[in-house]
From TrEMBL:
It catalyses: O-phospho-L-serine + H2O = L-serine + phosphate; O-phospho-D-serine + H2O = D-serine + phosphate. The active site is at 79 (nucleophile), 81 (proton donor). One of its GO terms (biological process) is L-serine biosynthetic process. NCBIfam families: HAD-SF-IB, serB. Pathway: Amino-acid biosynthesis; L-serine biosynthesis; L-serine from 3-phospho-D-glycerate: step 3/3. This is Phosphoserine phosphatase. The keyword Amino-acid biosynthesis applies. Its cofactor is Mg(2+). It comes from Crenobacter intestini.
Length: 281
């Protein structure tokens, strides 16, 4: 099947397009918007050298099949922290407890794939013991912000009948509020144990880790009667890799290097509207 190279950036000068076209041997440069273009014919693969050139030019590139449409998908499975929203909730909760540097350091190592996610979550939550449950509400109201382009992507999902599932290694306190606020179809996360209005430092039930994210994707996909090719998954950390690999299209969004290296598409310079920008319609 013929492919083209999608180029996206906050600003896309003609000189940048010409430099990319020359590097990949493209003969046709077609602007499809002020910040988007397609180059063809497309190389057989996006090489490390081409990726490095794009990164240096401040643009996102992706190899996309001709005629691919967003409406052909039926489900998006998204991570929450640093993907649908701009923060890591557990780090901001820890900030309310005066422990953000300690918790954030564990979070970073886990996201880089240096620590087992479940073990790191247990260790981080244990540090939150005794914190008032009211701190969670403060984090939600004062610090949770949607990632740029999130509302555009969600509006397109509603318009085209694409279901949206939030699956997070974070906490139900936040996923349930976002589900209600944004009209999401599904939301799964870990539940913090609370007693007497304070966190106990424990998680209730099974932990939503990489394997659980993958399983939830498969279960929801199968329940909807979708083929694997009809699922988009997006995330930024090592615990998202299994679900990205299971999806027809795996998108590394503002992701750690280990995730960018393995995902089919990496979006680093534009917002979540860049997922829509991959498609003709």
């Amino acid at each position: 099947m013929p492919h083209h190279l999608v180029v996206q950036a906050p600003a896309l000068p003609q000189a940048t397009l010409e430099q990319l076209a020359a590097a990949c041997g493209a003969a046709i440069t077609q602007r499809t918007g002020p910040c988007r273009a397609r180059l063809s014919p497309c190389p057989d693969a996006v090489t490390p050298a081409l990726s490095a050139l794009a990164a240096g030019l401040g643009v996102d590139i992706a190899r996309v099949a001709d005629g691919a449409r967003f409406a052909d998908y039926g489900l998006i499975v998204s991570d929450m922290d640093s993907t649908l929203i701009t923060i890591e909730c557990i780090d901001e909760i820890a900030d309310m407890h005066g422990l953000k540097p300690e918790v954030a350091a564990i979070t970073e190592r886990s996201m880089q794939g240096e620590l087992d996610f479940a073990q790191s979550l247990v260790a981080r939550v244990a540090l939150l013991e005794g914190l008032s449950e009211a701190a969670l509400e403060r984090v939600y109201l004062e610090r949770v912000r949607l990632t740029r382009g999130a509302e555009t992507l969600l509006a397109a999902c509603r318009a085209h009948g694409v279901r949206f599932m939030l699956v997070s290694g974070g906490f139900t306190f936040f996923t349930e509020r976002l589900k209600a606020r944004l009209g999401l179809d599904y939301a799964y996360a870990n539940e913090l144990e609370v007693a007497g209005g304070r966190l106990t430092g424990r998680v209730k039930g099974d932990i939503v880790d990489a394997a659980a994210k993958r399983r939830l994707l498969i279960d929801t996909r199968d329940a909807l009667g979708l083929a694997p090719q009809q699922v988009i998954a997006m995330g930024d950390g090592a615990n998202d890799l299994m679900m990205l690999a299971e999806a027809g299209l795996g998108v590394a969004f503002d992701a750690k290097p280990v995730v960018r290296a393995q995902a089919a598409v990496a979006i680093n310079h534009v917002g979540l509207e860049g997922v829509l920008g991959l498609f003709d319609a």
